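In the previous chapter we treated chains in isolation. Here, by contrast, the input contains two separate entities that must be folded as one system, with a combined length of 948 residues.
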Amino acid sequence: MPVRVAESSAPSQVSGAHSEESSPPICSLLTVGQAFSGTQNVSNLQKEEAWRVNVRIQGCDLEHGYLCGTMEALNVPMADTPVVTFWEGEIVDAKNYTFYTGKWEATPEDDIRHWTKFPSFAPLLSRVEADGGKSLDLSNYPYIFMRWKEQYFVNVGTDCGLTIAGFYYVCFSCSDGSINGFYYDPNSSPFQKLELKCANEGRSGFSFSSYELQ
Amino acid sequence: MPTTTASAVCTTVGNNILLRLTSGERDVKLKALRELKNQIIGNRTKKLSFLKLGAVPAVAGILSDAVSAVDVADNDENDRIVKDIIVQSAAVLGSFACGFEAGVRAVLDAGADILIQRGCLVEEMPLLKSYMEVVDAGARSLKMIYQSKMAPKYDFLQEENMEFLLSLLNNESENVSGLGASIISHSCKTSLEQKLLFDAGVLKRLTSLLGGSLIQRDASLESIATIFKNNPEVVSQFVGPDTGRTLSCIIEIVKDRFARTRLLASLCLIVIRNASPCYLQDVGIKTKLINNLLELLDDPGRVGDEASFAFSSLIAEKEDMQKLAFEVNGVDKLYNHLQKGSLHPRRFEGILLALADMCSKLECCRSRCLSLQVLKLVVDALAHDSSDVRSAACMCLRSVSRSIKNLSAGSFMNETIVIPLVRLLDDTSTAVQVAALGAISNIVVDFTTRRSTFIRLGGVKLLVQLSKSMDSTIRLNALRALRNLIFLAEDKCKEEIFMELTASLLASLICDPEPSVQEQALALVRNLVDGRINSVEYIFAEDGIILDAVGRQLRIASKAEIEIQGMYVLGNVATGKESHKEAVMDQLLLRAENKAQSCIIKFLQSNDSRLRTAAVWAVLNLTCSSSPGSSGRLVKLHDAGIVSHVKNMVNDPCLDVKLRVKTALEQFNSFDDSLASTSCLQFLTVRAVGELSHVVDPSSKIPCDSISNSCYVYVTDFCVIYSHVANSINSQCL
């Protein structure tokens, strides 16, 4: 979520070890159209603050380890309306992306420090420290690890006083569609937490729609 | 002062020549032939004029007479004139056929191709065979004929034909061997023919011709490419000690000083690579090919026109090649050519298709296109006179609009793009309509609120009209666009689309004769009933004909893609109100003819994990803990054997299915206790109803007189009974 002025950059592909077997599973709760809602804790030393957040997945290309969508932050104090941003995600699949970010001012130490905050990462730690997780088989692991990087503001100008300099380390639970994340930006308060649950938007159960690009 | 017109002069001259062609004097005839040849060479207009005057049959007649007049015992002078007449008449006929389709037709109609073949090349003419001029003239003429698509098909299966072909290839004359190669390039179409030619050993000769003259080299390159095209078997048999040399030879020729030769060499390598990707994997060669073709675009003639098509065949569907091409600024180079303007339609088409291929898989290429403002030129091309150019422009737009990032930003949903595209939905060419539908399918995936632009510009009306087309390809692609348009659409937008579509049309499309149309129609309905909960009502419009159609298709379908979409429709409806869920239950529990069990059981057992997932979601949604009727539905699902099938899937090999099944079982377990008490209460209720004198209305309260304290029993479908007992219940009542 927006913190302070900086330049955004698009995720780039990192060629890593290719393994057909170790791509994350296709999870029906992490598909286009799915909505998630929850909060982001934006507390700092001065005050406690949390924004309500809604996320919707708009694009998904598992072959390239790519995901994208929008993030809407409500009750943002410096904004009159909800602030919507467009983000792009890198899925850690040992094929396209590893656990090491390699950009956005995140060092391998930063990476490990953040990933270890997810309990589901613990069993993977030793392998990740050894080779970035390239040799991991994540195909049957019920969690999907990602990095989400906001690219631009959808409904407000860049002069709104908010920024999208950092990125999120994200852990998605395939079991119940819950999302946990930690925002990373060297210039802002550390470990701002994002907690989302899969939203069924007033329905009793989960509804799925889809599109197919030609 | 009136003067004679130019065409009148031509006609006079032409008539004069033709008159002299009929002369009995061989010298006069020969001179007329030479004049005719000089008149028509490189001159299309004159070719047409002489064609209309009947020159071709006349010259064919002369050729025939001359061939018949050949006499080995004749003296040298007569022999020379006959030979010259044959040479000149063959040359005239060849010239008529050169790059002039009407000329080819006339030559073939006159049987001149056979005449030339027999007269100039056949072994039985020992006299003529010693005259290379005759042989060469015949070969040159036939080659021109064989450059045309209208040339007769050469039958390689006939043994004597194959022998003749080999004799041509083995001839020292570049025109004769070139003819042999041309015949192969023109007529070899099937894999059987490719195999026959390969087995006959033509490749050895063709390879040696690579070191010959320019004509031989070019002809050989084309023939080699023809023999290998799309035939991995023949390519794999090519493996041997000679392979490396041939390939190296062709790779060298890629650097030839003649543009056409460079193009043909590149095409040859591309054909080999496409047929058998294990060859030519070296990055250096790949880059060389890419750079070569991009440079060839600079050629102002036909080579430049064709270079982009060759480039497309090199990179199409191959991400690694597209990446390499991007790294050598392929997008920019193609764009620079586009910018030149006033392009020949063939060149324009080729460059647009090359850009479409560049952007087919890589976001970096699409981004580059967008930053260069390529779309401006592409949109202009949507209104081009040539249908091939219009089609190519749509394909380019389709590729670029695969950029989800830009779809999210609504980059394409503006009048500049939408208006000319929508116009193409009414194009006279079906191919253009289909191409436009492809682009529109992507552009309407819009996450902003700009879908209304498309609707306002009449897009929906046209799409719905096209979904009723007799042509199933058009129907299918129109539905694809509508499906994408409805994805996450706002209520008002959905309403407008549904009003245009109507429930009856949707129901009939779900039952379309084409399975792929059925699939898209179901996917459309799936999207239609998603979103706000009131969207579910659409499926119940017109007495629920859509829902009935969905249920019917599920019971009879055998294609997984249809079943998946159908199950998601039902699964989505099952997230609605109680009545919606019950309607889904009715559909699921209806048996198909001769089927002992619900179709959902078949889906739960499918090999396709996507179908298993969809089926489990439907069960999950029907038994959602927050819904009051869920436990009752669970009992019904249990009685239908569905619950036990789900339980058996606890170790499903697909993680997604396994996780959904786990959730389902947790849901089932939450009802277990109430299931047990429900069974007991069901039994007791029946007894109670029997005891009581009142007729039981399933949803009514039953005051039980003989109960000592107040006891109100609510009965709902005899499945769930909520009872409130103030004191102990009188055993007589119960």
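Residues 35-198 of chain A form one domain. The CA atoms of residues 40 and 123 of chain A lie 26 Å apart. Compare these points with the single-chain example from earlier in the chapter.
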